[in-house]
Design brief:
The complex is a heterotrimer of chains A (about 325), B (about 375) and C (about 350). Chain A is of the alpha/beta class. Helix content of chain A is about 35%, strand content about 25%. Chain B starts with a helix and ends in a 5-residue tail after the last helix. Classes of the chains: A alpha/beta (about 325), B mainly alpha (about 375), C mainly alpha (about 350). Chains B and C meet through α6, α7, α10, α12 and α14 of B and α1, α5, α6, α7 and α9 of C.
Chain lengths: ~325, ~375, ~350
């Protein structure tokens, strides 16, 4: 797998709390290839964002991170702080969830982009960097970029701020863009516009993107591959068609049943019964077992291993082989 | 809610076949396990009342406990100590002047042979009494003005706010000194002078809290249900501002004691024959080169009293202020939202947080 | 007075001109609001002070022998007029030839007294302010960066004690240690305990060190706590994470991105603290026998020196108003979200 841009191998993230260790991400293994869009889907608290922050080494101080993360062959988790800083914002850039709080309120938007450019290449003069940041703002569709660059974040609307965040993220042509719920905090009408900008930008720069979201609808239109997370683990990985039409995992199926069909075929939405489990003390065996329609005694025995169910398609369920027939019986 | 699930679960068990019993108990075990986890995380399904939570937080606050115990010990020492001593606070014995500490005179004697322990104890009680009166008067006045302004708003709010601004424009310390010099001879007089300048902060705080609570839905609901102004004020608003007031009054108490001792030290507050901790320091000040301990003993007692009071205030704030960190209950979120709203509103007249910082600054009592 | 405006539709190149104009308008309006408030406050203070301070108190015993002196004082301070009208006489005198009047306790014109004493106070206040601001800033950043470390707990404990300590206790402790004990133990006397010698710069430095340090400590105890919580709040903001994600060094993240935000409320405190320092500290100045405004005030109060008392009251009131205004303007300048207008 030498062609992978990012290789994550058995990544674990735990938080030491007074009540014990909370496992926020467990045994995460995946790859991102250059130029592809990988969507990470899951309910809130499933460990998506924590995984992304751990890749950037931006996790909180009380987090314990183990495993291997290789970016172009370099070990991200063990490189020096200086090397890590050179990577952040340069090779890997991140877009955060809430554009209202993610920009520093006391600096002009243009200055914040200039800073991003010049911290990685001090040979660029301030004027050049300013011109470039105006161009970037234009690229992401900020109207009147020249004037807007010298404005402060509070003078931007939410959608415009997220555009500015995108401009800041792509300032140094990163090879990997991590977008952590980039549209969650925005109005529905603006969400589509921002996603469009994100796509154009990604196509233009040719960077890979890790799109973290809980919105399956968003995934359908924009990702090459999808990864489904539940209770800190990866449940299923596959291409967009595999996940949406040939899912082999009960959780993915339940998730798909709980949202409206894109074609409007589904008549009744099926919410998933129960609540997500506690990460402090998860149920034995498969974490989804208490809410799973297919659960059996064998599910409680041990955490199910990942099973390869097709080309690029993996699922974490011990009953994968039986699901085909079982699924027919239940529905 | 959780217990009812368990009960109905067991009822089902009774009717279930043997095979099903297994899975049922399995589920039960699981529910109880989740419950335990929830307890650990403080997410137990049965919500605790605010009072319970507050009590727990207060008693979990080590400094607050230290403060309470410290205050009890200090009052006991000041109250009971002189009863065990054979000396009166103004009993002169010129032959025994300027003695060091001994079993007879625990803290030694002053320059006209009065027992310093008895004088310190009496001074401490006197300082505490003035502090208490001033804090209570300032709180009652401030609460009345603040609640009035916040509740009725409009012109009334404008009048009270300007009154507060007026008092803040007046150079507090100087006016305090002038008036304390005139009225400081009696405990009540001195306390009233102090209260006259210190009620503004409480008025501000209460006004802010009332403004934010007033916007909350349950007050609107009460209003919609036809509750009268006075009913809303006493049944809905007052219970909600009690917490904020309790915190303020404690913090105010510390400020007042520092101010009183300072004025008395300058000779502007408590007058002979009465003694307060401040006058005791002033009395001994002349001999500071030869006998610094005599100067510092009353000073250290002032620090101890104020320290304990502040610890208590800190604990109260953590326990009673739902906005305090460490709590993520829904009420905390509501309060946060309301506070934000209030800040926005007050933002129209000027940044409210500046005013807060400002009053914080003056409350140090730096003279 | 401060209104948040979210969308000023001003072309870039005129933003500066426009904001200067806005600032000027804001300051003008604030001054216009403050002046009547100040005048009312001064009127009330004058009535209050005349009601409580009686410059003739020494004369009552010797009447009628000293009727002449008694009458001249009555005339000087217009004591025979109604107490509520007396402030008008005072303010009228202010703008006539009499100015601030004559100080009976110092024996000089009040204007002259205020000038020399004010300068003395400033000599202590300015170093105290600078020392306090720098140290409280450093402590705030340190405690916020190392929350719950031993150092953080240590400084928290110190500030609790500093908070509970009246200024006279602190000043006396400092005096005992540096003025008395150091000499006793080591035979050196690095600092003077008061009295302005003013012979040369080094002598002056020895004079002002102890009062300036004890004033600075009082400010630090409060400001560093406040600054700590302000910095802590800032360091937990999303934009700090963004700054790190951009690849900035920790130093830039803390000292540029966090400090610029965390500093805003602290600057306000400093402005107000500085005005308090400049108005003279009664306790510290009198303990270190420093002939500043504070010490002069005590003397004026003791001697019922009405004119000097009123001058000090006005000086302090005007300072308070000015520095409140400065604090608000600084707030608007440092935080672009707040528009003064």
């Amino acid at each position: 797998m030498s062609d992978a841009l990012l290789t994550v191998d058995h990544l674990n993230v735990g938080f030491a709390t007074r009540a014990g260790i909370v496992r926020a991400a467990t045994d995460i293994t995946f790859e991102i290839h250059p130029g592809e869009v990988l969507a990470v889907v899951g309910e809130s608290g499933s460990g998506k964002s924590v995984t992304a922050l751990a890749l950037m080494r931006l996790h909180p101080d009380n987090a314990i991170v183990t495993g291997d993360v290789l970016f172009e062959g370099c070990d991200l988790l063990n490189m020096s702080d200086r090397e890590m800083r050179a990577t952040r914002g340069n090779d890997i850039a991140m877009i955060f969830q809430d554009p209202m709080t993610a920009m520093n309120p006391v600096f002009a938007v243009g200055d914040q982009i200039v800073e991003t450019i010049r911290v990685h290449d001090s040979s660029i003069s301030k004027q050049e960097a300013w011109t470039k940041s105006v161009d970037l703002l234009k690229l992401v569709g900020v109207p009147e970029p020249k004037r807007r660059a010298s404005q402060y974040p509070h003078e931007y609307s939410g959608g415009m701020r997220q555009r500015a965040m995108i401009a800041m993220a792509i300032a140094n042509d990163p090879k990997l863009l991590i977008a952590d719920e980039p549209t969650t905090a925005l109005d529905v009408t603006v969400q589509a516009q921002v996603m469009e900008v994100l796509h154009e930008v990604q196509a233009e720069t040719g960077s890979a993107m890790m799109l973290i979201t809980h919105d399956l609808g968003l995934v359908a239109g924009s990702a090459d591959r999808v990864q489904v997370m539940y209770a800190s683990r990866l449940m299923e990985t596959g291409t967009i068609d595999q996940i949406f039409y040939e899912s082999q995992n009960p959780y993915t199926m339940a998730l798909l049943d709980s949202i409206p069909d894109l074609d409007g075929h589904r008549e009744q939405l099926e919410p998933i019964p129960g609540n997500p489990p506690s990460l402090l003390n998860p149920p034995s065996g498969c974490a989804f077992r208490p809410r799973c329609a297919f659960a059996a005694d064998v599910c409680a025995a041990e955490v199910p291993p990942t099973v390869v169910v097709g080309d690029q398609h993996e699922s974490r369920c011990v009953r994968t082989r039986e699901l085909e027939t079982l699924g027919g019986e239940i529905s | 809610m959780a217990s009812s699930t368990l009960v109905s679960g067991s009822a089902e068990i009774a009717m279930a076949t043997e095979f099903e019993i297994d899975s049922q108990t399995d589920e039960m075990l699981e529910t109880s396990m989740e419950l335990r986890v929830a307890d650990v995380e403080g997410l137990s399904e049965k919500p605790k009342t605010f009072g319970q939570l507050a009590r727990e937080r207060f008693f979990g606050h080590k400094l607050a406990i230290v403060g309470v115990i410290g205050l009890i010990l200090l009052v006991a020492l000041f109250w009971l100590g002189p009863m065990l001593s054979e000396w009166e606070f103004d009993e002169r014995n010129v032959a025994d002047r300027l003695l060091g500490p001994s079993s007879e005179h625990w803290f030694g004697t002053d320059e006209i042979g009065r027992d310093l322990f008895v004088r310190t104890a009496r001074g401490g009680l006197y300082s505490m009494r003035i502090g208490l009166i001033a804090a209570v008067v300032a709180t009652v006045t401030g609460t009345a003005f603040g609640a009035f302004a916040g509740f009725f708003g409009g012109v009334w709010d404008g009048i009270v706010s300007n009154l507060v601004n007026l008092v803040l424009t007046v150079p507090a310390i100087i006016v305090l000194s002038v008036f304390a010099n005139k009225f400081g001879a009696s405990a009540v007089g001195l306390a009233l002078v102090l209260a006259g300048l210190l009620w503004t902060r409480i008025a501000r705080v209460v006004r802010g809290v009332v403004l934010s609570i007033k916007e909350q839905e349950y007050i609107m609901a009460a209003r919609a249900a036809g509750a009268s102004n006075s009913r809303i004020m006493f049944r809905h608003l007052l219970p909600n501002i009690v917490g904020a007031i309790a915190v303020e009054v404690t913090l105010l108490l510390g400020t007042v004691i520092v101010l009183e001792s300072t004025l008395s030290f300058l000779g502007l507050g408590v007058k002979p024959p009465n003694a307060s901790l401040g006058t005791l320091v002033a009395d001994a000040k002349g001999d500071i080169d030869s006998d610094p301990i005599r100067v510092l003993t009353p000073g250290i007692f002032i620090i101890l009293i104020v320290l304990c009071v502040n610890f208590l205030g800190d604990g109260l704030r953590d326990a009673l202020d739902p906005r305090a960190k460490g709590s993520d209950s829904s009420e905390a979120k509501n309060a946060k939202k309301a506070a934000k709203k209030a800040r926005k509103q007050s933002g129209k007249q000027g940044p409210g947080y500046i005013a807060e910082a400002r009053t914080d600054r003056t409350s140090i009592g730096k003279i | 007075m401060c209104v948040m405006v979210c969308r000023p539709s001003v072309p870039v190149h005129t933003t500066t001109d426009r904001s200067v104009a806005t600032l000027f308008a804001y300051v003008t309006r604030r001054v216009l609001i403050s002046v009547p408030l100040l005048v009312i406050a001064m009127y009330l203070v004058h009535v209050g002070v005349s009601a409580t301070v009686d410059p003739r108190s020494d004369f009552y015993l010797c009447l009628p022998r000293c009727q002449e002196g008694f009458d001249s004082i009555t005339e000087t301070y217009a004591l025979d007029t109604n107490i509520f009208l007396r402030p008008f006489t005072y303010f009228a005198d202010l703008f006539s030839g009499d100015g601030l009047g004559f100080s009976s306790s110092v024996g000089e014109p009040v204007g002259e007294v205020m000038r020399t004493r004010g300068w003395n106070t400033a000599m202590v206040a300015i170093p105290a302010f600078l020392l306090g601001a720098v140290l409280s800033l450093l402590l705030s950043v340190y405690s916020a960066r190392r929350q719950y470390s031993v150092g953080d707990y240590f400084f928290t404990g110190l500030s609790f004690i500093g908070f509970a300590m009246p200024s006279f206790v602190l000043a006396l402790i400092i005096q005992v240690i540096f003025g008395v004990k150091l000499e006793e133990w080591f035979g050196i006397k690095p600092f003077n305990t008061g009295r302005k010698t003013g012979e040369n710069f080094w002598e002056l430095l020895r004079d002002i060190t102890l009062p300036a340090v004890s004033l600075a400590i009082l400010g630090i105890a409060a400001d560093s706590r406040f600054g700590r919580s302000s910095m802590l709040e800032t360091l937990n903001q999303d934009y700090i994470r963004t700054a790190r994600a951009k690849g900035l060094t920790e130093r830039t993240v803390v000292w540029k991105h966090a400090l610029r935000n965390g500093l805003i409320p602290l600057v306000t405190l400093w402005a107000l603290g500085f005005s308090a320092l400049l108005s003279g500290s009664v306790v510290t100045e009198s303990i270190f026998s420093w002939p500043g405004i504070g010490q002069t005030f005590l003397r004026a109060l003791g001697d019922s020196d009405l004119d000097l008392l009123m001058a000090i009251v006005m000086f302090t009131g005007v300072l308070t108003v000015i520095f409140n205004l400065i604090a608000d303007v600084l707030y608007g300048v440092l935080d672009p979200r707040i528009r003064l207008g």
